[in-house]
Amino acid sequence: xxxxxSKRPLRGATRTDLxxxxxxxxxxxxxxGVPGSEGEKRVLEIAESRIRTAIDLxxxxxxxTQRPHGVAFDLATERLAVIDSEGRLAHxxxxxxxxxxxxxxxxxxxxxxxxxxAFGRGGRVAIFDAHGLPLAGGRVRLVSGQEERVxxxxxxxxxxxxxxxxxxxxxxxxxxxxxxR
Length: 181
Prior knowledge:
By secondary structure, this protein is an alpha+beta fold. The chain has a single domain, classed as minor pseudopilin epsh domain (minor pseudopilin epsh fold), CATH 3.55.40. The chain is 29% helix and 23% strand. The chain is built from three helices and eight strands, in the order H-H-H-E-E-E-E-E-E-E-E. The strands form two sheets. Strands 3-2-1-5 form a four-stranded antiparallel β-sheet, covered by helices on one side.
């Protein structure tokens, strides 16, 4: 009320105020994530990248140590771990840290679900022999909202491929009734 009665003219926002406000808004939006399908796809891309990295690490450790290593998936906690031949957490040779990956870490928290991890007789563990090749192929299914991604481990090469997304069935063609008598 006192502002309205004041004889000083009202000032608008400066460019600096506007830029600062836009920066804060951008930061908040980036932390909140992208809503909808694009955000779900991004979450799946990050989870896929983490899984590929863990599989590459297990394969590389198996080759370099000449001992089996694996990637164990825990569906209940949305985590995976690179393990050695005795089932202990393996250490990343570059960082020295244990290779335990939480797929729900950071912005992914409770946004991605691992609904399936199956690797032959290894069950939920992708096992690599002393040559870095998988003992069996397998697949991992990731779900985020309405988006789904299936990764397959090739049993011959050890490469991880993404299965193509299932196509949505096309609507049946409507008969052209304009030209029928």
